[in-house]
Design a protein that fits this description.
Blueprint (H helix, E strand, L loop, with lengths): L10 H12 L2 H13 L3 H29 L3 H46 L23 H9 L3 H17 L3 H28 L3 H9 L9 H14 L6 H6 L8 H29 L8 H14 L5 H38 L3 H18 L16 H44 L7 H26 L15 H22 L7
Bound molecules: phenylalanine.
Length: 508
């Protein structure tokens, strides 16, 4: 028996869905804040190198094994490399579940801020629950507004709503995903273009663009800048999570995956580029500093910039609303792909129906997303994250974002390069591709990429070990900084072992 896994109705549908997956919070907020943290122009060189030497070849690999096997990530790797391949696949799906949980929490908060744009977000004198630290300000203050929001219970409702929308988009598989991305993806391009036009036409907006693009050669010598650029590339292109393999498995076998990989990477990085320009120009007009965590950028700094965009209140509100709507749309087409990667793996392995697979994911998924918004205040000085939920989120993001993706990427190239044979993959891709991948491709997959990733992972673990945890100021909760990475490692391993050794209910 083979189950009907679904197929894309058109190549356009696939490209919209895959680029919709790639374009998300990563492009709008994480890119700008990483670019800033790692020194504006210093970030660009590593970023571009990462695009060509890591991003594109790995995208070709992930798409290639999807069409080759017609299976989602764990089963595809299982066919290629046996049980150890399948284990790596399930391990990455566990990472994807952690990311899905907090990704949707962030979207829930964005929904709260979007509603707030029409309400009191841009009005003066919001009152703070953190009285001693955040005084109600005479001007509109998005930081106060945001902490008010996340230290209450309202986000529970927004998060459940975002989960419900995701499940609705996923209920018919490729057919309903395709219908949704046909609306969402063009809309997010239009909204982003509106923001960028407004950004660069602001007085001094161009200074921000200059900062972003002025090269800084000193920064390039630091290993953490490279790790930042590599992790950003993985996350932004949705690599290392099994997504691209799942999406490609719904394509005809003769698809030109070298070409598709370049097209998706190009669309993603152009969007990221434009978003960087929009955000840096907006921030520099008011000399705002996009420092701090990625989340503070989207929830305090950008709204503060928007606040000064015009003297006319309704224009400010409109832009605020538009920015958060853009975040939600871009985020939805990504969270949908994260859940689909997991759902299609369960369907392929266990032969269960789509609705059962979705329910199996939604129960732990929603619980996790809600944990990330627990409103208890544990860092009253707000020097770190403030609430329990935000702290959990920040620590999880640190590990999964920085290490899980790179680690899976490493395992993936080793399996394909050495067990399947990188030359076999190259021939397979070349069979249907207009572009001819030369022997350099084999070299990259076998030696260069695994070597590079090993160096980056090892040097960044080495550099951060003595400092880790020092930035969290939360009496009584410090143990979380150790507990969370351990929990992630142990639970992912148990999960992956369990599914790898479970027998398959589907015959090939
Ligand atoms: N690429 C998405 C973004 O940039 C996030 C994502 C990561 C989606 C991994 C799927 C898998 O926001």
């Amino acid at each position: 028996m083979t189950t009907n896994r679904g197929t894309w109705k058109s190549k356009l549908g696939f490209i919209l869905a895959a680029s919709g997956s790639a374009i998300g919070l990563g492009n709008i907020v994480f890119f700008s804040s990483n670019a800033y943290q790692y020194g504006g122009g210093a970030f660009y060189l590593p970023y571009f190198i990462a695009l060509f030497v890591l991003g594109m070849p790995l995208m070709m690999l992930e798409l290639g094994i999807g069409t080759m096997t017609g299976r989602s990530f764990p089963m595809a790797l299982g066919k290629i490399a046996g049980k150890k391949g399948e284990f790596v696949g399930w391990w990455s799906i566990a990472g994807a579940l952690f990311i899905t949980m907090y990704y949707i929490t962030i979207l829930g908060w964005a929904l709260g801020m979007m509603a707030g744009s029409l309400g009191s977000l841009f009005e003066a004198g919001a009152t703070a629950p953190f009285d001693d630290y955040l005084k109600p300000s005479p001007a509109a203050n998005s930081t106060v507004y945001f902490f008010n929001l996340i230290s209450g219970w309202l986000p529970f409702f927004f998060i459940i709503l975002i989960w419900a929308i995701n499940l609705l988009i996923l209920r018919k598989g490729t057919a309903s995903i395709e219908r949704a991305v046909r609306v969402i993806v063009p809309l997010m391009w239009i909204f982003m273009l509106i923001l960028v036009v407004r950004g660069i036409t602001l007085e001094k907006g161009f200074d921000g663009v200059m900062y972003l693009f002025t090269p800084d050669l000193e920064g390039i010598a630091q290993p953490h800048v490279w790790r930042g650029a590599f992790s950003q590339m993985f996350f932004s292109l949705s690599l290392g999570m099994g997504i691209m393999t799942a999406y490609a498995s719904y394509l005809p076998r003769d698809s030109d995956q070298a070409n598709n990989a370049m097209l998706i990477s190009f669309l993603n990085c152009s969007f990221e580029f434009i978003a960087g320009i929009a955000i840096f120009s907006l921030l520099f007009v008011y000399a705002l500093n996009p420092a701090g965590t990625t989340l503070s950028l989207s929830f305090f700094v950008i709204p503060q910039g928007i606040n000064g965009i015009s003297a006319v209140p309704w224009i400010v509100r409109l832009f605020g609303f538009l920015f958060f709507l853009l975040m939600i749309l871009a985020g939805l087409s990504s969270s949908v792909s994260l859940i689909e990667g997991f759902a299609s793996s369960l369907i392929d392995k266990l032969g269960i129906t789509r609705s059962r697979a979705l329910a199996t994911i939604a129960i732990p998924g929603i619980t996790g997303s809600l944990l990330f918004t627990l409103p208890q205040v544990i860092d009253p000085s707000l020097s770190g994250d403030g609430t329990l939920g935000l702290t959990l989120l920040d620590i999880t993001d640190h590990w999964v974002f920085n290490y899980s993706l790179l680690f899976i990427g490493f395992a993936e190239v080793v399996l394909i390069g050495w067990v399947m044979g990188a030359d076999n993959l190259r021939q397979l891709l070349n069979r249907h591709s207009r572009l001819r991948l030369g022997p350099w491709f084999t070299f990259m997959i076998r030696y260069f990429i695994p070597g590079l990733l090993a160096v980056v992972i090892a040097s960044s673990l080495y550099n951060e070990a003595p400092l880790y945890g020092s930035s969290y100021d939360m009496p009584g909760y410090k143990w979380l900084t150790v507990f969370i990475p351990l929990f992630w490692l142990v639970s992912s391993t148990v999960f992956a072992l369990y599914l790898t050794h479970k027998s398959t209910n589907i015959s090939e």
